[in-house]
Amino acid sequence: MAVKAVKDKKKQAGIGIITEGDRYLFGEGTHYEIYKKMGAHPATVNGKKGIYFAVWAPHAAHVSVVGDFNGWDPDATPMEPLETSGIYETFVPGLGTDELYKFTITTSSGKVLFKADPFAQYAEYRPGTASITADPSFKWTDDTWMEHRKEGNPREQPISIYEVHLGSWKRKDREEKEGFYTYREAAEELAAYVHEMGYTHVELMGIAEHPFDGSWGYQVTGYYAPTSRYGKPEDFMYFVNYLHKKGIGVILDWVPAHFPKDAHGLADFDGQALYEYADPRKGEHPDWGTKVFNYGCHEVSNFLIANALYWIHEYHVDGLRVDAVASMLYLDYGRQDGQWVPNEYGGNQNLDAIEFFRHLNSIVDRREHGAMVIAEESTAWPLVTHDPKVGGLGFTFKWNMGWMHDFLEYMKLDPYFRKFNHNKMTFGLTYFNSENFILVLSHDEVVHLKCSMINKMPGSLEDKFKNLKAGYTFMMGHPGKKLLFMGQDFGQLHEWDEKVSLNWEEADDPLHKDLQNYLKDLLHIYQKYPSLSEADDDWDGFQWINANDGDRSIFSFVRYSRDHKKSLLFVCNFTPVARPDYRVGVPKRGNYTLLLDSEHGMYKSPQKPPVLRAQKKECDGQPYSVALPLPAYGTAILRFT
């Protein structure tokens, strides 16, 4: 993103790279490519090549840039203010890329702060905290993918997401950077695994630069810098491009809710509150010890919205999963009485954050149509995925946290008690079309003594695997896109730990391999049949056959495509009691082909799948029915036309 050459300007106008128009748009909060001007960029000024620096620090008494190039001397390279914008700039001739730097900010009280560049595109490997000059350049070859994305509608497409923490997915036996896979190494192995399993997307935790591994990337200090743990910016571009070439989308976790108080970061950036609300009752999360962005400040909202567009446009990512949305929407989130400030109408809604989301989602849709913005919103806030024109927030999808809690509570139960909790599995179907949902079994559910997914299941080890197969089958048939955290597809026994690799040796054990193969079959069925994705928010796409068989803890339902062709019937038994001649109602006559069951997985050539002929025998309120053997914890998916 090198800046074009400029001629000398009058001192009042500055160097001329950041124009009066740039300053106006930044002040209005609508400079969507401000990252091309702010920060550090190669430039040519008066015929000399070097690096142009610009930083926003309106409360500062003095600003300079320091680095190896000037011995980290705060007096060596002063920066000049640009009129009343609060922006400081300078040009350092002869300076190139891969140089460490920071901004030194002298506050109004005379204190000198050493701050990393908020717009830095590259950062020093931890524990170092300096920014690094960069000019990311990459030859993209994913045009076909990008055109398809632009023309598509994610809400009607199959989306099955593999959530990954890159630092602990796999590690190599080497000392360099603690054995982390590089972006380039991970791209090839991860793409191969994801493609084989049948996932459509990878969601990456913690890619923006962050100092503390234990934050999993949710306490960000470098919003514009892919973490140097795994390589350079160009390496991450390679990662995204490679996955796109293999037909796999890339989603990033994005954290506009809060930021840490690390001395080199955004907190009190120019000696006082700048990126955060000044009032600590709005500007700090007491539970997390972090700062809250001031969404009502145009320059701050511009910083964040441009950042979202930066990842989508410059790095071609296909979606952003917005972390902790509820903490942004509610002024009293995590706060006791007296610790929060009501809005101008006396309510607890953060009106600034509401407007921020509507602005963000509208501009992403307009400029990067087809890219997704996904809300991790844990309350019943209305209209999260509805158009701002009708009072919505405009997100593409919302994580279905309610479904996740009910599902896991049910699955943990001893099968005897499931009949008393049957509604936990059916309740989600009373509101499934109120939003555009993603069903999630994320990292948050398999850490901090919550047990891995397999160890949440009751019974013997063998029963645990049977339970989980039944649960995954129900999840795959339930309306909504899908997300599963790494390691849970092969039933990793221990909880996730970001400090170590997944235990891939377990995947070779017969029970684990059987679960992995079964989920693989489910994922491939999910991708193949439009009935499982086209009408996720429409009652026309779902029909209960029997939602009330609590005594036997059996659920049966149908998923329909828009044209009602190749519909799928799901039957799931959540007890260890076999039903050798289970009869299930069906809506029409004809043949019902068994695509998959818990005993065989998916029927593949040369196996011929069993075909059941519907009998005109009323069952479950349906005019026809079929009989099939349903083993203990048995499942079945049948296709009909």
Low-confidence stretches: 5-12
Largest sheet: 8 strands, parallel, barrel
- Cα-atom radius of gyration: 27 Å
C-alpha end-to-end distance: 54 Å
Principal-axis shape equals elongated
What fraction strand? 15-25%
Number of E strands? 29
Number of DSSP helices? 15
- Category by helix and strand content: alpha/beta
Average pLDDT, to the nearest integer? Answer: 96
Strand order of the largest sheet: 9-10-13-16-17-18-19-20
Description:
It is built from 15 helices and 29 strands. With 641 residues, it is α/β, with parallel strands linked by helices. The two termini are 54 Å apart.
List key phrases describing it.
single chain, 641 residues, alpha/beta, 15 helices
Concise overview:
By secondary structure, the protein is of the alpha/beta class.
Task: List the SSEs and their pairings.
Layout: H1 20-28, E1 39-45, E2 48-56, E3 62-67, E4 80-81, E5 87-93, E6 100-106, E7 112-115, E8 131-132, H2 143-151, E9 160-165, H3 166-169, H4 183-197, E10 201-205, E11 208-209, E12 222-226, H5 233-245, E13 249-254, H6 280-283, E14 284-285, E15 290-291, H7 298-314, E16 319-322, H8 325-329, H9 351-367, E17 372-375, E18 397-399, H10 401-412, H11 415-418, H12 423-426, E19 437-441, H13 453-456, H14 461-477, E20 481-485, H15 510-528, E21 542-546, E22 554-559, E23 567-573, E24 579-586, E25 591-597, E26 601-602, E27 611-613, E28 624-630, E29 635-640
Parallel strand pairs: 9-10, 9-20, 10-13, 13-16, 16-17, 17-18, 18-19, 19-20
Antiparallel strand pairs: 1-2, 2-5, 3-6, 4-5, 6-7, 6-8, 11-12, 14-15, 21-22, 22-23, 23-29, 24-28, 25-26, 25-27, 25-29
